[in-house]
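Task: sequence design from structure.
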């Protein structure tokens, strides 16, 4: 019974990742339905009036194999440092932790995409946290966006990692925005057509990252394991990491 309910609840989360993940035939079909993209200037993401809402210049948090990759990723990824305060991080954590705690960490995702994780989704948030979710949505998505109402919460153990994947184009739209709680990490974007071309993005604790359009469709993304967690020659220590992810509908 419990398993049945869980399956229904997680069906949505699985849909988000499952289609594109591992199997060659599936990723090929996804590539085939990659929609046309337009390059987005990250500076246009935030409200120009509010300095706190301006993204960090992407070059400060991006290390790429080549300038073309750097330019594409700079144009389609934004990172907002200290998007949430320590107090807000705690409020989000306090709301999700009782639910996460009831779940066991999974060693392997059924489709082999994630190691050492547990996850949930949440539609209704406490008044305090709803304000934060709305802040993300208002900043990142256009006013007429069709949001996936369930916010995805992914809890990675310190030794956990997410392998390269592209979120399902059938279930998830052009933009993915995640708040990073508890730990900094490195998100790697690898060119789907030439895997020797990639960029690493430093995601500090309490930052918000936004990937859209070309970064979302033409590059896979992954969260590096502790052993690979380096940025510009410095170790980026990995701890337990919780991401709170908003998506729009396809
Ligand atoms: C995912 C994913 C990234 C993150 O769940 O599909 O890519 O920040 N998560 O946890
Ligand atoms: Mn993903």
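Answer:
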């Amino acid at each position: 019974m419990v398993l049945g309910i869980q399956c229904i609840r997680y069906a949505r989360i699985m849909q988000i990742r499952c289609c594109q993940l591992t199997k060659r035939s599936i990723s090929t079909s996804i590539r085939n339905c990659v929609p046309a993209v337009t390059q987005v200037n990250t500076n246009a993401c935030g409200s120009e009036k509010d300095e706190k809402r301006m993204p960090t210049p992407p070059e400060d948090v991006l290390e790429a194999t080549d300038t073309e990759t750097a330019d594409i990723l700079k144009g389609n990824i934004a990172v907002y440092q200290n998007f949430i305060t320590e107090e807000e991080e705690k409020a989000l954590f306090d709301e999700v932790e009782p639910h996460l705690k009831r779940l066991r960490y999974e060693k392997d995702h059924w489709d082999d995409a994630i190691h050492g994780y547990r996850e949930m989704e949440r539609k209704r948030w406490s008044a305090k946290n709803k304000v934060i979710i709305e802040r993300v949505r208002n900043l990142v998505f256009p006013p007429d966006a069709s949001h996936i109402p369930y916010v995805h919460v992914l809890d990675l153990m310190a030794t956990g990692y997410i392998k390269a994947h592209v979120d399902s184009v059938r279930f998830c739209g052009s933009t993915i925005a995640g708040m990073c709680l508890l730990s900094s990490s490195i998100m790697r974007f690898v060119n789907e057509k030439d895997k020797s071309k990639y960029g690493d993005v430093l995601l500090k604790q309490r930052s918000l990252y936004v990937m859209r359009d070309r970064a979302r469709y033409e590059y896979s993304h992954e969260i590096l394991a502790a052993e690979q967690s380096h940025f510009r020659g410095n170790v980026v220590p990995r701890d337990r990491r919780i991401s709170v992810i908003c998506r729009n509908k396809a």
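The two ends are 31 Å apart (CA to CA).
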